[in-house]
Structure formats: C-alpha cells, structure tokens
Amino acid sequence: MGYTVTVVAPVNIAVIKYWGKRDEELILPLNDSVSATLDTSVMCAKTSVSASPEFTEDVIWLNGKKESFSNKRLQNCLREVKERAAAEGSVDKNFLSWKVHVCSENNFPTAAGLASSAAGYACLVTALAKLYKVKTDVSSIARLGSGSACRSVYGGFVRWHAGSDPSGVDSIATQIASSTHWPEMRALILVVGDSKKKMSSTKGMKITTETSELLKHRIKHCVPQRTTEITKAILARDFPKFAEITMKDSNQFHAVCLDSYPPFVYLTEVSHTIIELIHSYNEICGETKVAYTFDAGPNACLYMLESEVPKIFKIIKTIFPSSDPTKFISGLPINDADVST
Ligand code: PMV
Q: Could you report the predicted ipTM of this complex, rounded to two decimals?
C-alpha cells in the first residue's frame, strides 16, 4: 500500500545572477535574480516520491546512488511541504506520518555548473507538493533546497524576489513573461567540462559575501537597475538590450569571484574563447545577436533568437571539432510547460 508521484522539472539559467546570501539557513539572497526556464526535452530532473506506512525510514536515491536523508536541505524541504499540507488541511495526519522514498535523476552532469540542483530541488518539492496536495506557491519551499531552484518552479522568464522579511515569506519566484511571449528565444548549452566543480556555490557565496567589496557595489548599484532594465527588455522583446545586460551580469558575477579572498575561478580557457568568439560574432553582425552567460562552472549558455541557431552551430562546430571536450546540448526553446507530472 502507498502512493507514488513522478514529476519532471526544468533547468533555469540566470541572466541576472544570484550570488550571496543574507541568511544561510533559509537561503535568502542578497539580490533579486532573473532567469529563463529551459525546455525539459533535453535537460531535466525526474523525481518519483512514494509514501507508504510500510517504509521504516526516509530514503533518497540520487542518480541511482543511495544517499543519506540526513542532508539538512532535504529535510527542510520535506518538513516545509508537510507543514504546508497540514496548514492547508489537504491530507490527513496519518498520511503525513508515513515515511517517503525518493528517486531522483538528472539527464545531464550533476554539480558542473549546469543548474542541476535547481532542477533537482524544484522537482523534489513539486513532487512532494503533489503527493501531499499542496495548493499554494511552492517556490519558497524549493528555495530551501537550492536558492536558484525556486525559479525552476515556473516557466518562461522568471524573477526571484530577494524579499526583505527575515522569515523569507516574500523571497519567492514570479513569472515575468511566459515562453509564448518570446517564442523565438533559444538557449544553446555548450558543455565545456562536466566534472564536479571545485568550489561549491554555497562555499563560494560565503567567501564572496565576507570579502568582496565589488559584491557590495554590485548589489547596491548594478543589480537593481539591471533587473528593471532586463524585465523591460524581455517585455519589449528587445534582444540586443537583453543580451547586453546578460553578458555584463555574467562578467560581473565572475569578477566578484575573482574579487573574493581567496579568489576562485569557474571559467576556463575554453570559456574565455567562447566569450571572445561571441563578441567577434556580434561585432561582425553589427548588432548584438548572441549573448553568453556562465554559472558556477565553465559551461556556456548562449541565448539567441531561433534564426541565429544554425549559424552559431556551424561556427562552434568549426572552432571546436567533435574531438574537443566542448559539445552541444542543444538549441533549447525557452520552456513554459511548467513542471509536469
Ligand atoms: O542555487 P545555487 O546554490 O546552485 O546557486 C546558483 C548560483 C548561480 O547559478 C551561479 C547563479 C544563479 O542565479 O543561478
């Protein structure tokens, strides 16, 4: 006897980066961030959650490997979903006391700066919310697993509001626009390296928050203005503006990593070659046609309109032949299919 729910959740790639926490436990960010949610057809997390009176302990399998449920973030997510379900009265108390078994898989490298934790926690929390019939917004619960996960709960273009309440009640994600608003938008992921990153985002953010002067400047003088401007650019479908802000924000994020003490770097020589290539391409075009952005890893996410995809594919293939570690994931459309069962 028992109940099982299976959910698929997308990756999101930030165009205004989240970097730095004001509360480590509740995962409250220092700044707002903005992202696009990618199609689940190529990159996604898939999670099944079962609850049964026969289970004796909570268990999780991550990409086929049994992991401990003692992980605090996992426990926080499970506890919050159950508390929300209890408050909403959506299921009976007995059901809430049953243990759960979770099986979660990513179809792309984990912890290589490809937003695997975002998709993973968005998936887990959505699956749990479905199991316990939670009706209200779950982005604030996904946030407890991995900050950026709150943005993967919605499709299209999404903003994570930093909020100001110490409880985190207003630190939630909302949709700026659905994918149908800008159907030509594409994201191309170039996998430069798929090994696990040396500096976790949690540790990196802590060092940056404690030591970087540039981070203070970024949060006060750059991010608020950029967030307003990129929202306008998205709503106006102004690609050159969207691209310029995206690239500047990625560059500043990597600059704050370098401004941290001790400094750390996520970009490799190949990442820098991609940056130079995109700037040359835009210059030759006489207009900004492609944007790059890099998370906490060397892999590039290129944003462009659909008409640009074949040209960029061709150029990248020429510059990085197939023997090179660089490979494409795909020209992913921006997804609006939301998390699906
Ligand atoms: O949610 P985390 O802890 O994986 O941090 C994500 C940080 C970046 O990917 C670098 C930026 C972002 O906003 O997604």
A: 0.99
